[in-house]
From TrEMBL:
Keywords: Exonuclease, Hydrolase, Ligase, Nuclease
Source organism per UniProt: Pinibacter soli
GO molecular function: exonuclease activity; ligase activity
Descriptive protein name: Ligase-associated DNA damage response exonuclease
Presence of the UniProt keyword Lipid biosynthesis in the record: no
SUPFAM superfamilies: Metallo-hydrolase/oxidoreductase
Length: 337
């Protein structure tokens, strides 16, 4: 029997009697990170990274939470479990599972460039590695984060020169935290949608030091938003909520902006290919570094990516999961529709 099985409730370790990122309620859930496709309501107990706990509390309410720091191990019914940095978002972790000398690693979502706030991805040696493939095609090859930040800053300056506001679409948990520091280098007039602001407050209460942002006030006069930057989640894009910032331009932070035609199809003013997921080379480098003899490929371009791994001599197989519904991963459907 495999150490981790793929079931209708999620990734299951029978020896330890726990699930990793289950999509149905279970007794014991080990969570890679706080995005809603990986952390769902209803389980009796949750084990996660220390930084993930307050985010789960905000999103799932009060529950039985246990926490670990990176590298700290715990025995669950005789199975050794430890968490290791995934670099995806704050608190995101790979789950290392060991029993009778066999080691599996469930990576969750991850990226290999250190963004300065999420922890640097740590390759973990294992026999079997479970990887995402959100951007598992060669076309996805990210620019350095620092260069993208310069592009964002120049776009904001250009907006201000034209006396327009800059509305930046960024996922409320993940990219919104990454872009706040470079934005603050250009202006202190930064406002945020309530969903974004709530995440910032939760993280600031945990001890993270971010520049100040102001929450959007429904009844605030239009003059308050003059030469301002507004950070909003994808759900706000093209909504009536945006009208209060007129005149404005829209810039979208998403890995899907790597394909230039997506900017035109979405009728936006600027696209920044900033992603919280690994690009093609990052995926390949991460897998090679694990030394795994078997790789299971989940959400994204799993068919093409697993086929490529097999052609390279790495045994790989596709696995169907309910992961990949965070706002960036699901944006592909939005673009194509």
């Amino acid at each position: 029997m495999a150490l981790i099985q793929f079931t209708d409730k999620g990734l299951y370790c029978a020896e330890g009697n726990f699930y990793i990122d289950p999509w149905q309620p279970v007794d014991k859930a080990v969570i890679t990170h706080a995005h809603s496709d990986h952390a769902r309501w209803g389980s009796k107990s949750y084990l996660c990274h220390t930084f993930t706990k307050p985010l789960l509390q905000q999103r799932l309410g009060d529950n039985n939470y246990e926490t670990l720091d990176w590298g700290q191990a715990v025995l669950i019914n005789g199975v050794k479990v430890s968490l290791h940095p995934a670099g995806h978002i704050i608190g995101s972790s790979q789950i290392r599972v060991e029993h009778n000398g066999e080691v599996w690693v469930v990576s969750g979502d991850y990226k290999t460039e250190n963004d300065g706030i999420s922890g640097e991805f740590e390759p973990v040696k294992c026999n079997t590695f479970i990887t995402e493939s959100t951007f598992g095609l060669p076309i996805y090859n990210w620019k350095k984060q620092a260069d993208i930040f310069i592009d964002i800053q120049n776009w904001i300056k250009d907006c201000f020169e034209k006396n327009t506001n800059g509305v930046i679409i960024a996922y409320s948990l993940g990219k919104a935290q990454r872009i706040i520091a470079p934005i603050a280098e250009v202006t202190s007039n930064i406002h945020a949608h309530g969903a974004v602001w709530n995440i910032f407050q939760t993280l600031k209460n945990t001890g993270f030091n971010f520049p100040d942002i102001k929450r959007i006030e429904i009844d605030a006069p239009k003059e308050k938003y003059k030469n301002a930057v507004i950070i909003a989640p994808p759900s706000a894009e093209a909504s009536l909520w945006m009208r209060r910032f007129t005149p404005f331009e829209v810039g979208v932070c998403s890995g899907w902006m790597q394909v230039r035609g997506n900017v035109r199809r979405r009728n936006i003013d600027a696209g920044f290919a900033l992603s919280d997921h690994a690009d093609w080379n990052g995926l390949l480098q991460a897998i090679e570094a694990t030394g795994a003899s078997k790789v299971f490929v989940t959400h994204g371009f799993q068919s093409a990516f697993s086929r490529y791994l097999n052609e390279k001599g790495i045994e790989a197989a596709e696995v169907k999961t309910e992961f990949g519904n965070d706002e960036e991963a699901s944006e592909e459907l939005k673009i194509e529709s």
